[in-house]
Amino acid sequence: MGKEINKVMTAKEAVARFVFDGAIIGMGGQSIGRCSMALAHEIVRQGKRDLTLVGCNLALSMDIMVGAGLVKRTECGTGNLERFGSAMRWRKAIEQG
User: Fold this and answer.
1) What is the pLDDT of residues 60-71, one digit of tens each?
2) Considering the entire predicted model, what is its pTM?
């Protein structure tokens, strides 16, 4: 048997290693549940730019990155917060072109 490799890392390390300016990021979760909030906050902290976010229903984590001005494009079925309405920064960005 070979030596076991530990692949566990912090959010800070993961974003620094795998997210780059201009990256296309596939995002999971659904509306307001199971969203990758810690990673979204870390992406904002590190200021990654010109991101394309892809997912079924992008919501809270997407809205944080859009509001921070880091996203150039989203590809999703919807961007809503379920009973709370549309993701506000995302909607404003669309309305402003």
Assistant:
1) 899 999 999 999
2) 0.86
Residue 30 DSSP class: B
Two structure tokens written together for 65? 């990155």
User: Which are the contacts of 57, defined by CB distance < 8 A and separation ≥ 6?
Assistant: 29, 30, 31, 76, 77, 78, 79, 80
Judged against a pLDDT cut of 80, whether residue 33 lies above it is answered with no
Q: Would you say residue 82 has pLDDT above 90?
A: no
User: Are 15 and 40 a contacting pair, CB within 8 Å?
Assistant: no
Strand order in the sheet with 71-78: 24-26, 51-57, 71-78
Contact 33, 7 (CB under 8 A): no
Q: Pseudo-torsion of CA 57, 46, 14, 63, nearest 10°? A: -10
Query: Looking up tokens 């669309």, which residue turns up?
Result: 94
Supply 59's token pair: 């919501």
The tokens for 1 are 């048997």
The amino acid occupying position 83 is R
